[in-house]
Design a protein that fits this description.
single chain; ten-stranded mixed beta sheet; four-stranded antiparallel beta sheet; 16 strands; 30% helix; globular
Length: 559
Amino acid sequence: MSSATDVSKITRRSLVAASACAALRGAPARRPNVIIVMMDDFGYGQFAPNAAALTQKDYDPAFVDFLARHKGDAPEVGLEYARRAMPTMTALAGQGVVFTNAFSSSNLCAPARVGVLTGVQQNRYGFYQNEDVERVGLPQGSVLAGRLQQGGYATALVGKYHAGTRDESLRLGVMKKFGLAPGALMKMDPAKRAEVDAEIRKTGYLGSTIPEHNPLKYGFDYYFGYNRWECPFYDSEHIWEDRKYAGLQKEYNTDLFTGKALDFIGRSRKQGKPFFLELCYHAVHGPLKPQAPARYFDQFKGATYNMQNFYAHVNGVDAGVAALKAELERAGEWENTLLMFCSDNGGSINAASPLPGNAPFRGHKGSMLQGGLHVPMMAHWPAGLKRNGRRAELASMLDLMPTALDAAGIAAPAGLDGRSLLPMLTGKASRTHDTLAWAGMHARAWGFMAETTIGAAEPRRDESPGGWVVTDGSFMMRFVGATPAGLFKDVPDGAPAMRELYDMREDPGERTNLIGKLPQVAERLEKAYAAEAMKMPAPARWRRDRWQELMPAGHPEVK
Protein backbone atom coordinates (compact mmCIF):
# COMPACT_ATOMS: atom_id res chain seq x y z
CA MET A 1 0.00 0.00 0.00
CA SER A 2 1.39 3.40 -0.93
CA SER A 3 2.12 6.11 1.61
CA ALA A 4 -0.78 8.12 0.20
CA THR A 5 -3.33 5.48 1.18
CA ASP A 6 -5.57 6.54 4.07
CA VAL A 7 -8.21 4.70 6.06
CA SER A 8 -11.07 6.00 3.91
CA LYS A 9 -9.49 4.22 0.94
CA ILE A 10 -8.75 1.14 3.01
CA THR A 11 -12.43 0.68 3.83
CA ARG A 12 -13.32 0.39 0.13
CA ARG A 13 -11.41 -2.84 -0.34
CA SER A 14 -13.44 -5.94 -1.00
CA LEU A 15 -13.06 -9.26 0.82
CA VAL A 16 -14.21 -12.76 -0.17
CA ALA A 17 -16.92 -14.36 1.93
CA ALA A 18 -15.92 -17.32 4.10
CA SER A 19 -16.74 -20.97 3.53
CA ALA A 20 -18.64 -22.98 6.11
CA CYS A 21 -16.54 -24.57 8.88
CA ALA A 22 -16.94 -26.71 11.97
CA ALA A 23 -19.56 -26.42 14.72
CA LEU A 24 -18.80 -24.24 17.73
CA ARG A 25 -19.91 -24.99 21.29
CA GLY A 26 -22.67 -27.33 20.12
CA ALA A 27 -24.37 -24.94 17.67
CA PRO A 28 -23.88 -25.18 13.90
CA ALA A 29 -21.64 -22.31 12.83
CA ARG A 30 -18.51 -21.50 10.90
CA ARG A 31 -15.37 -21.26 12.94
CA PRO A 32 -14.97 -17.60 13.84
CA ASN A 33 -12.31 -15.24 12.69
CA VAL A 34 -10.36 -13.85 15.64
CA ILE A 35 -8.77 -10.41 15.94
CA ILE A 36 -6.79 -9.16 18.92
CA VAL A 37 -6.23 -5.39 18.77
CA MET A 38 -3.60 -4.25 21.25
CA MET A 39 -2.66 -0.66 21.96
CA ASP A 40 0.60 0.32 23.63
CA ASP A 41 0.76 2.12 27.00
CA PHE A 42 -2.93 3.06 26.81
CA GLY A 43 -4.48 3.93 30.16
CA TYR A 44 -7.61 2.40 31.63
CA GLY A 45 -9.32 5.78 31.95
CA GLN A 46 -8.26 6.88 28.46
CA PHE A 47 -10.41 4.15 26.89
CA ALA A 48 -13.73 5.74 25.90
CA PRO A 49 -16.07 3.06 27.37
CA ASN A 50 -14.26 3.39 30.70
CA ALA A 51 -14.05 7.18 30.59
CA ALA A 52 -17.85 7.28 30.25
CA ALA A 53 -18.11 5.83 33.77
CA LEU A 54 -15.59 8.22 35.37
CA THR A 55 -15.83 11.61 37.05
CA GLN A 56 -13.07 14.02 37.99
CA LYS A 57 -13.21 12.62 41.53
CA ASP A 58 -11.74 9.40 40.14
CA TYR A 59 -8.49 11.05 39.01
CA ASP A 60 -5.18 10.17 40.63
CA PRO A 61 -4.48 13.29 42.77
CA ALA A 62 -0.74 12.95 42.23
CA PHE A 63 -1.20 13.02 38.45
CA VAL A 64 -3.57 16.00 38.64
CA ASP A 65 -0.97 17.85 40.71
CA PHE A 66 1.77 16.96 38.21
CA LEU A 67 -0.25 18.30 35.27
CA ALA A 68 -1.14 21.48 37.14
CA ARG A 69 2.56 22.15 37.67
CA HIS A 70 3.31 21.39 34.03
CA LYS A 71 0.47 23.54 32.62
CA GLY A 72 -1.74 20.69 31.49
CA ASP A 73 -5.34 21.08 30.35
CA ALA A 74 -8.26 21.62 32.70
CA PRO A 75 -9.33 18.27 34.19
CA GLU A 76 -12.74 18.32 32.50
CA VAL A 77 -11.15 18.47 29.03
CA GLY A 78 -9.51 15.08 29.45
CA LEU A 79 -12.81 13.38 30.19
CA GLU A 80 -14.50 15.05 27.24
CA TYR A 81 -11.82 14.07 24.73
CA ALA A 82 -11.44 10.53 26.07
CA ARG A 83 -15.18 9.94 25.84
CA ARG A 84 -15.38 10.92 22.17
CA ALA A 85 -12.01 9.71 20.85
CA MET A 86 -13.21 6.17 20.06
CA PRO A 87 -16.76 6.18 18.67
CA THR A 88 -16.34 2.77 17.04
CA MET A 89 -15.09 1.12 20.22
CA THR A 90 -17.84 2.83 22.21
CA ALA A 91 -20.48 1.37 19.91
CA LEU A 92 -18.90 -2.09 20.02
CA ALA A 93 -18.66 -1.96 23.80
CA GLY A 94 -22.39 -1.32 23.96
CA GLN A 95 -22.96 -4.53 22.00
CA GLY A 96 -20.23 -6.63 23.65
CA VAL A 97 -18.41 -7.12 26.92
CA VAL A 98 -16.21 -4.62 28.77
CA PHE A 99 -14.04 -6.19 31.46
CA THR A 100 -13.70 -3.71 34.30
CA ASN A 101 -11.47 -5.97 36.42
CA ALA A 102 -8.94 -7.06 33.80
CA PHE A 103 -5.17 -7.09 34.21
CA SER A 104 -2.05 -7.37 32.14
CA SER A 105 0.38 -10.11 33.06
CA SER A 106 3.09 -7.46 33.54
CA ASN A 107 3.55 -3.73 34.07
CA LEU A 108 6.02 -3.62 31.15
CA CYS A 109 5.50 -4.26 27.45
CA ALA A 110 7.79 -7.16 26.46
CA PRO A 111 6.83 -9.47 29.36
CA ALA A 112 3.16 -8.58 28.89
CA ARG A 113 3.30 -9.54 25.22
CA VAL A 114 4.87 -12.87 26.13
CA GLY A 115 1.90 -13.47 28.43
CA VAL A 116 -0.57 -12.76 25.63
CA LEU A 117 1.24 -14.87 23.02
CA THR A 118 1.68 -17.89 25.28
CA GLY A 119 -1.14 -17.80 27.84
CA VAL A 120 1.59 -18.46 30.43
CA GLN A 121 2.45 -16.01 33.22
CA GLN A 122 5.81 -14.93 31.87
CA ASN A 123 7.48 -14.97 35.30
CA ARG A 124 7.51 -18.75 34.83
CA TYR A 125 9.99 -18.24 31.98
CA GLY A 126 12.23 -16.01 34.13
CA PHE A 127 10.88 -12.83 32.50
CA TYR A 128 10.42 -9.88 34.87
CA GLN A 129 11.43 -6.90 32.72
CA ASN A 130 11.96 -6.07 29.04
CA GLU A 131 15.62 -7.04 28.91
CA ASP A 132 14.87 -10.55 30.19
CA VAL A 133 12.72 -11.18 27.14
CA GLU A 134 15.13 -9.49 24.74
CA ARG A 135 18.00 -11.64 25.95
CA VAL A 136 16.24 -15.02 25.79
CA GLY A 137 13.23 -14.84 23.46
CA LEU A 138 10.21 -17.10 23.49
CA PRO A 139 10.57 -20.88 23.93
CA GLN A 140 9.80 -22.71 20.71
CA GLY A 141 6.30 -24.18 20.71
CA SER A 142 5.06 -21.77 23.36
CA VAL A 143 3.10 -19.36 21.14
CA LEU A 144 -0.55 -20.36 20.91
CA ALA A 145 -0.98 -18.97 17.40
CA GLY A 146 0.70 -22.18 16.26
CA ARG A 147 -2.31 -24.14 17.48
CA LEU A 148 -4.60 -22.05 15.34
CA GLN A 149 -2.28 -22.43 12.36
CA GLN A 150 -2.29 -26.20 12.78
CA GLY A 151 -6.08 -26.07 13.05
CA GLY A 152 -6.44 -24.53 9.61
CA TYR A 153 -6.36 -20.82 10.42
CA ALA A 154 -4.40 -18.23 8.50
CA THR A 155 -2.38 -16.37 11.12
CA ALA A 156 -0.67 -12.98 11.21
CA LEU A 157 1.11 -10.62 13.57
CA VAL A 158 1.08 -6.99 12.45
CA GLY A 159 2.76 -4.20 14.42
CA LYS A 160 4.73 -4.47 17.63
CA TYR A 161 6.31 -7.82 18.46
CA HIS A 162 9.04 -7.10 21.08
CA ALA A 163 9.43 -10.70 22.19
CA GLY A 164 12.73 -11.70 20.60
CA THR A 165 16.44 -10.98 20.45
CA ARG A 166 17.75 -8.40 17.99
CA ASP A 167 20.06 -9.66 15.26
CA GLU A 168 23.50 -8.41 16.32
CA SER A 169 25.05 -9.77 13.13
CA LEU A 170 23.51 -6.82 11.26
CA ARG A 171 25.20 -4.26 13.50
CA LEU A 172 28.49 -6.12 13.64
CA GLY A 173 28.53 -6.43 9.86
CA VAL A 174 28.42 -2.66 9.47
CA MET A 175 31.12 -2.20 12.10
CA LYS A 176 33.33 -4.68 10.27
CA LYS A 177 32.76 -2.73 7.05
CA PHE A 178 34.09 0.38 8.82
CA GLY A 179 36.95 -1.58 10.38
CA LEU A 180 35.59 -1.18 13.91
CA ALA A 181 35.96 -3.65 16.75
CA PRO A 182 32.98 -4.46 19.02
CA GLY A 183 32.55 -1.67 21.56
CA ALA A 184 34.38 0.90 19.46
CA LEU A 185 31.25 2.99 18.78
CA MET A 186 31.13 4.33 22.31
CA LYS A 187 34.62 5.83 21.91
CA MET A 188 34.14 7.41 18.48
CA ASP A 189 33.93 11.03 17.48
CA PRO A 190 30.19 11.96 17.45
CA ALA A 191 30.16 12.92 13.76
CA LYS A 192 31.80 9.66 12.67
CA ARG A 193 29.57 7.66 14.97
CA ALA A 194 26.48 9.28 13.43
CA GLU A 195 27.64 8.03 10.02
CA VAL A 196 28.05 4.46 11.32
CA ASP A 197 24.73 4.56 13.18
CA ALA A 198 22.96 5.65 9.99
CA GLU A 199 24.39 2.65 8.15
CA ILE A 200 23.29 0.34 10.96
CA ARG A 201 19.74 1.70 10.82
CA LYS A 202 19.58 1.00 7.08
CA THR A 203 20.05 -2.73 7.81
CA GLY A 204 16.84 -2.81 9.87
CA TYR A 205 18.83 -3.76 12.96
CA LEU A 206 16.74 -1.68 15.34
CA GLY A 207 13.56 -3.69 14.72
CA SER A 208 15.16 -7.03 13.84
CA THR A 209 15.04 -10.48 15.37
CA ILE A 210 17.51 -13.29 15.11
CA PRO A 211 16.13 -15.84 12.60
CA GLU A 212 15.05 -18.34 15.25
CA HIS A 213 12.96 -15.67 17.04
CA ASN A 214 11.09 -14.45 13.96
CA PRO A 215 7.30 -14.72 14.46
CA LEU A 216 7.14 -17.04 11.43
CA LYS A 217 8.94 -19.62 13.60
CA TYR A 218 6.13 -19.51 16.15
CA GLY A 219 3.03 -20.24 14.09
CA PHE A 220 2.42 -17.00 12.21
CA ASP A 221 1.97 -17.19 8.43
CA TYR A 222 2.58 -13.48 7.99
CA TYR A 223 4.57 -10.89 9.93
CA PHE A 224 4.77 -7.17 9.33
CA GLY A 225 6.20 -5.37 12.31
CA TYR A 226 9.07 -4.47 14.58
CA ASN A 227 10.88 -6.16 17.44
CA ARG A 228 11.45 -3.12 19.61
CA TRP A 229 9.79 -1.08 22.35
CA GLU A 230 8.79 1.74 19.99
CA CYS A 231 8.39 2.58 16.32
CA PRO A 232 8.44 6.17 14.97
CA PHE A 233 5.00 7.27 13.79
CA TYR A 234 6.57 8.39 10.50
CA ASP A 235 9.74 7.51 8.56
CA SER A 236 10.37 4.30 10.45
CA GLU A 237 13.48 2.23 9.81
CA HIS A 238 12.35 -0.49 12.23
CA ILE A 239 9.89 -2.60 10.23
CA TRP A 240 10.32 -6.09 8.78
CA GLU A 241 8.00 -8.08 6.52
CA ASP A 242 8.22 -11.81 7.10
CA ARG A 243 12.01 -12.41 7.04
CA LYS A 244 13.02 -9.33 5.04
CA TYR A 245 13.73 -5.78 6.11
CA ALA A 246 10.93 -3.58 4.72
CA GLY A 247 13.08 -0.47 4.35
CA LEU A 248 12.08 3.08 5.19
CA GLN A 249 8.35 3.33 5.89
CA LYS A 250 7.22 6.93 5.51
CA GLU A 251 3.50 6.37 6.17
CA TYR A 252 1.83 7.11 9.51
CA ASN A 253 2.25 3.77 11.18
CA THR A 254 -1.27 3.39 12.57
CA ASP A 255 -2.70 3.55 9.04
CA LEU A 256 0.16 1.46 7.69
CA PHE A 257 -0.56 -1.36 10.14
CA THR A 258 -4.29 -1.18 9.46
CA GLY A 259 -3.65 -1.48 5.73
CA LYS A 260 -1.36 -4.49 6.14
CA ALA A 261 -3.92 -6.13 8.40
CA LEU A 262 -6.61 -5.70 5.75
CA ASP A 263 -4.31 -7.06 3.07
CA PHE A 264 -3.76 -10.19 5.17
CA ILE A 265 -7.49 -10.62 5.79
CA GLY A 266 -8.15 -10.37 2.08
CA ARG A 267 -5.59 -13.08 1.33
CA SER A 268 -6.96 -15.41 3.98
CA ARG A 269 -10.50 -15.05 2.68
CA LYS A 270 -9.36 -15.87 -0.86
CA GLN A 271 -7.80 -19.03 0.57
CA GLY A 272 -11.14 -19.92 2.16
CA LYS A 273 -9.58 -19.95 5.63
CA PRO A 274 -10.74 -18.43 8.88
CA PHE A 275 -8.07 -16.07 10.16
CA PHE A 276 -6.36 -15.10 13.37
CA LEU A 277 -4.87 -11.60 13.44
CA GLU A 278 -2.91 -9.99 16.26
CA LEU A 279 -2.82 -6.29 15.40
CA CYS A 280 -0.49 -4.46 17.77
CA TYR A 281 -0.48 -0.72 17.19
CA HIS A 282 2.43 1.49 18.21
CA ALA A 283 -0.06 4.09 19.48
CA VAL A 284 0.11 5.47 22.12
CA HIS A 285 3.72 4.67 23.02
CA GLY A 286 6.08 7.61 23.06
CA PRO A 287 7.55 9.65 21.66
CA LEU A 288 4.13 11.23 21.12
CA LYS A 289 5.27 14.59 19.78
CA PRO A 290 4.87 13.77 16.05
CA GLN A 291 1.50 15.12 14.96
CA ALA A 292 -1.20 12.68 13.93
CA PRO A 293 -2.70 13.19 10.44
CA ALA A 294 -5.09 16.10 10.13
CA ARG A 295 -8.14 13.84 9.69
CA TYR A 296 -7.61 12.78 13.32
CA PHE A 297 -5.86 15.84 14.74
CA ASP A 298 -8.45 18.37 13.62
CA GLN A 299 -11.23 16.63 15.57
CA PHE A 300 -9.76 17.71 18.90
CA LYS A 301 -9.14 21.42 18.59
CA GLY A 302 -9.33 23.74 21.56
CA ALA A 303 -6.85 22.06 23.91
CA THR A 304 -3.10 22.03 24.40
CA TYR A 305 -1.05 20.33 21.71
CA ASN A 306 -0.39 17.35 23.99
CA MET A 307 -4.05 16.72 24.68
CA GLN A 308 -5.14 17.28 21.08
CA ASN A 309 -2.41 15.11 19.61
CA PHE A 310 -2.78 12.27 22.10
CA TYR A 311 -6.46 11.75 21.42
CA ALA A 312 -5.83 12.19 17.70
CA HIS A 313 -3.50 9.18 17.86
CA VAL A 314 -6.17 7.28 19.81
CA ASN A 315 -8.77 8.22 17.21
CA GLY A 316 -6.50 6.82 14.49
CA VAL A 317 -6.66 3.40 16.14
CA ASP A 318 -10.44 3.66 16.37
CA ALA A 319 -10.56 4.47 12.65
CA GLY A 320 -8.48 1.36 12.03
CA VAL A 321 -10.98 -0.82 13.87
CA ALA A 322 -13.77 0.85 11.91
CA ALA A 323 -11.98 -0.05 8.67
CA LEU A 324 -11.68 -3.69 9.70
CA LYS A 325 -15.34 -3.78 10.69
CA ALA A 326 -16.51 -2.18 7.43
CA GLU A 327 -14.63 -4.63 5.24
CA LEU A 328 -15.72 -7.67 7.22
CA GLU A 329 -19.32 -6.49 7.05
CA ARG A 330 -19.02 -6.26 3.26
CA ALA A 331 -17.74 -9.83 3.22
CA GLY A 332 -20.52 -11.10 5.48
CA GLU A 333 -17.89 -12.02 8.09
CA TRP A 334 -18.33 -9.45 10.84
CA GLU A 335 -21.06 -11.30 12.75
CA ASN A 336 -18.75 -14.28 13.14
CA THR A 337 -15.60 -12.39 14.04
CA LEU A 338 -14.42 -12.39 17.65
CA LEU A 339 -12.72 -9.06 18.32
CA MET A 340 -10.78 -8.64 21.55
CA PHE A 341 -9.20 -5.32 22.54
CA CYS A 342 -6.65 -4.42 25.21
CA SER A 343 -3.61 -2.36 26.11
CA ASP A 344 -0.33 -4.15 26.81
CA ASN A 345 0.06 -2.58 30.27
CA GLY A 346 -1.04 0.47 32.21
CA GLY A 347 -0.68 3.88 30.62
CA SER A 348 2.69 5.62 30.67
CA ILE A 349 0.92 8.76 31.78
CA ASN A 350 2.72 12.09 31.75
CA ALA A 351 2.37 15.51 30.11
CA ALA A 352 2.01 13.92 26.65
CA SER A 353 -0.31 11.10 27.83
CA PRO A 354 -2.98 13.11 29.62
CA LEU A 355 -6.05 12.79 31.80
CA PRO A 356 -7.98 10.71 32.62
CA GLY A 357 -4.77 8.64 32.59
CA ASN A 358 -5.24 5.36 34.45
CA ALA A 359 -8.18 6.65 36.52
CA PRO A 360 -9.63 5.50 38.82
CA PHE A 361 -6.31 3.84 39.66
CA ARG A 362 -3.07 5.42 40.83
CA GLY A 363 0.34 4.94 39.33
CA HIS A 364 1.45 4.07 35.82
CA LYS A 365 3.41 1.72 33.60
CA GLY A 366 6.41 0.16 35.35
CA SER A 367 4.85 0.34 38.81
CA MET A 368 3.17 -2.47 40.72
CA LEU A 369 0.29 -0.14 41.51
CA GLN A 370 -3.04 -0.78 39.82
CA GLY A 371 -2.27 1.94 37.30
CA GLY A 372 0.58 -0.20 36.00
CA LEU A 373 -1.39 -3.44 35.77
CA HIS A 374 -5.12 -2.71 35.42
CA VAL A 375 -5.88 -2.40 31.71
CA PRO A 376 -8.80 -1.71 29.37
CA MET A 377 -10.13 -4.93 27.85
CA MET A 378 -13.25 -5.81 25.89
CA ALA A 379 -14.69 -8.50 23.60
CA HIS A 380 -17.25 -8.36 20.78
CA TRP A 381 -18.66 -11.34 18.87
CA PRO A 382 -22.25 -11.04 17.64
CA ALA A 383 -22.61 -14.69 16.62
CA GLY A 384 -21.05 -16.12 19.77
CA LEU A 385 -21.73 -13.77 22.68
CA LYS A 386 -24.93 -12.24 23.88
CA ARG A 387 -24.65 -8.70 25.11
CA ASN A 388 -22.98 -8.89 28.52
CA GLY A 389 -22.34 -5.22 29.28
CA ARG A 390 -19.72 -4.43 31.91
CA ARG A 391 -18.35 -7.45 33.75
CA ALA A 392 -16.44 -7.20 37.04
CA GLU A 393 -15.17 -10.78 37.26
CA LEU A 394 -11.40 -11.17 37.51
CA ALA A 395 -9.86 -11.45 34.04
CA SER A 396 -6.42 -11.33 32.50
CA MET A 397 -4.79 -10.72 29.14
CA LEU A 398 -3.45 -14.25 29.64
CA ASP A 399 -7.00 -15.31 28.78
CA LEU A 400 -7.10 -13.85 25.28
CA MET A 401 -5.42 -16.69 23.40
CA PRO A 402 -7.15 -19.49 25.36
CA THR A 403 -10.44 -17.74 24.54
CA ALA A 404 -9.47 -17.65 20.86
CA LEU A 405 -8.68 -21.36 20.89
CA ASP A 406 -11.94 -22.17 22.66
CA ALA A 407 -13.94 -20.13 20.15
CA ALA A 408 -12.20 -21.98 17.32
CA GLY A 409 -12.92 -25.37 18.89
CA ILE A 410 -9.20 -26.10 19.30
CA ALA A 411 -7.91 -27.67 22.49
CA ALA A 412 -5.56 -25.57 24.58
CA PRO A 413 -2.37 -27.23 25.85
CA ALA A 414 -2.05 -28.19 29.49
CA GLY A 415 -0.24 -25.92 31.90
CA LEU A 416 -1.57 -22.54 30.83
CA ASP A 417 -2.22 -19.80 33.35
CA GLY A 418 -4.77 -18.17 31.06
CA ARG A 419 -8.29 -19.55 30.81
CA SER A 420 -11.02 -19.20 28.23
CA LEU A 421 -13.44 -16.44 29.12
CA LEU A 422 -16.28 -18.07 27.20
CA PRO A 423 -17.60 -20.34 29.98
CA MET A 424 -17.96 -17.32 32.25
CA LEU A 425 -19.51 -15.18 29.53
CA THR A 426 -21.99 -17.87 28.48
CA GLY A 427 -23.07 -18.65 32.04
CA LYS A 428 -21.36 -22.04 32.25
CA ALA A 429 -18.92 -20.87 34.93
CA SER A 430 -19.16 -18.23 37.62
CA ARG A 431 -15.56 -17.04 37.34
CA THR A 432 -12.35 -17.58 35.40
CA HIS A 433 -9.64 -17.03 38.05
CA ASP A 434 -9.53 -17.35 41.82
CA THR A 435 -6.38 -15.22 42.03
CA LEU A 436 -3.77 -13.55 39.82
CA ALA A 437 -0.17 -12.91 40.88
CA TRP A 438 2.80 -10.95 39.51
CA ALA A 439 6.43 -10.23 40.35
CA GLY A 440 8.78 -7.70 38.80
CA MET A 441 10.14 -4.17 38.90
CA HIS A 442 8.37 -1.49 40.91
CA ALA A 443 9.81 1.46 39.03
CA ARG A 444 8.91 5.11 38.47
CA ALA A 445 10.79 5.66 35.21
CA TRP A 446 7.89 5.19 32.75
CA GLY A 447 5.52 8.00 33.69
CA PHE A 448 4.99 11.19 35.66
CA MET A 449 6.55 9.75 38.84
CA ALA A 450 9.91 9.74 37.06
CA GLU A 451 10.39 13.35 38.20
CA THR A 452 10.77 12.11 41.77
CA THR A 453 14.03 10.33 40.84
CA ILE A 454 17.28 11.89 42.00
CA GLY A 455 19.03 12.43 38.70
CA ALA A 456 17.90 10.95 35.37
CA ALA A 457 15.20 8.32 35.82
CA GLU A 458 15.92 6.08 32.81
CA PRO A 459 19.55 5.23 33.67
CA ARG A 460 18.60 4.54 37.29
CA ARG A 461 15.53 2.37 36.73
CA ASP A 462 17.35 -0.89 37.54
CA GLU A 463 18.04 0.47 41.02
CA SER A 464 14.31 0.47 41.70
CA PRO A 465 12.96 -2.05 44.19
CA GLY A 466 11.11 -5.14 43.12
CA GLY A 467 7.55 -5.91 44.04
CA TRP A 468 4.91 -8.58 43.96
CA VAL A 469 1.15 -8.31 43.76
CA VAL A 470 -1.67 -10.77 44.25
CA THR A 471 -5.41 -10.22 43.88
CA ASP A 472 -8.59 -12.22 44.22
CA GLY A 473 -10.60 -9.58 42.39
CA SER A 474 -11.90 -8.03 45.60
CA PHE A 475 -8.67 -7.29 47.47
CA MET A 476 -5.18 -6.55 46.23
CA MET A 477 -2.06 -7.18 48.30
CA ARG A 478 1.31 -5.70 47.41
CA PHE A 479 4.84 -6.22 48.66
CA VAL A 480 7.51 -3.66 47.77
CA GLY A 481 11.14 -4.48 48.47
CA ALA A 482 13.56 -2.17 50.23
CA THR A 483 14.12 1.16 48.47
CA PRO A 484 17.80 2.16 48.38
CA ALA A 485 18.99 5.50 49.73
CA GLY A 486 19.67 8.25 47.23
CA LEU A 487 17.19 7.07 44.58
CA PHE A 488 13.97 9.03 45.16
CA LYS A 489 13.48 12.60 46.35
CA ASP A 490 10.56 11.73 48.65
CA VAL A 491 12.58 9.02 50.46
CA PRO A 492 16.19 10.22 50.09
CA ASP A 493 17.32 7.98 52.97
CA GLY A 494 15.63 4.94 51.45
CA ALA A 495 12.75 2.91 52.86
CA PRO A 496 12.30 -0.57 54.30
CA ALA A 497 10.28 -3.27 52.56
CA MET A 498 6.54 -2.89 53.03
CA ARG A 499 3.23 -4.68 52.57
CA GLU A 500 -0.09 -3.11 51.58
CA LEU A 501 -3.66 -4.37 51.28
CA TYR A 502 -6.51 -2.55 49.54
CA ASP A 503 -10.21 -3.09 48.97
CA MET A 504 -10.35 -2.85 45.18
CA ARG A 505 -14.09 -2.21 44.96
CA GLU A 506 -14.46 0.40 47.67
CA ASP A 507 -11.02 1.98 47.24
CA PRO A 508 -9.79 1.63 43.62
CA GLY A 509 -7.46 4.58 44.15
CA GLU A 510 -5.65 2.69 46.93
CA ARG A 511 -5.88 5.42 49.53
CA THR A 512 -6.51 3.32 52.68
CA ASN A 513 -4.04 0.56 53.53
CA LEU A 514 -5.90 -2.24 55.34
CA ILE A 515 -2.88 -4.45 56.05
CA GLY A 516 -3.25 -4.08 59.83
CA LYS A 517 -7.05 -4.37 59.84
CA LEU A 518 -7.59 -7.53 57.80
CA PRO A 519 -4.78 -9.93 58.76
CA GLN A 520 -6.67 -13.03 57.65
CA VAL A 521 -7.21 -11.65 54.15
CA ALA A 522 -3.55 -10.66 53.96
CA GLU A 523 -2.40 -14.08 55.10
CA ARG A 524 -4.63 -15.85 52.57
CA LEU A 525 -3.42 -13.71 49.70
CA GLU A 526 0.25 -13.98 50.66
CA LYS A 527 -0.05 -17.77 50.70
CA ALA A 528 -1.59 -17.65 47.23
CA TYR A 529 1.31 -15.54 45.98
CA ALA A 530 3.90 -17.83 47.60
CA ALA A 531 2.40 -20.86 45.84
CA GLU A 532 2.75 -19.11 42.47
CA ALA A 533 6.21 -17.72 43.24
CA MET A 534 7.59 -21.22 43.72
CA LYS A 535 7.14 -21.58 39.92
CA MET A 536 9.13 -18.40 39.15
CA PRO A 537 12.79 -19.07 38.25
CA ALA A 538 15.60 -16.56 38.55
CA PRO A 539 15.57 -13.75 35.99
CA ALA A 540 17.42 -13.91 32.71
CA ARG A 541 18.87 -10.43 33.14
CA TRP A 542 17.13 -8.48 35.95
CA ARG A 543 19.07 -8.01 39.19
CA ARG A 544 19.06 -11.27 41.12
CA ASP A 545 19.09 -9.48 44.49
CA ARG A 546 15.87 -7.69 43.60
CA TRP A 547 14.26 -10.94 42.47
CA GLN A 548 15.45 -12.90 45.48
CA GLU A 549 13.78 -10.45 47.87
CA LEU A 550 10.42 -11.34 46.26
CA MET A 551 10.72 -15.11 46.59
CA PRO A 552 9.25 -17.12 49.50
CA ALA A 553 11.26 -19.22 51.90
CA GLY A 554 12.02 -22.62 50.45
CA HIS A 555 12.29 -21.46 46.83
CA PRO A 556 14.77 -23.86 45.19
CA GLU A 557 16.90 -21.07 43.63
CA VAL A 558 17.08 -18.79 46.67
CA LYS A 559 20.29 -19.11 48.65
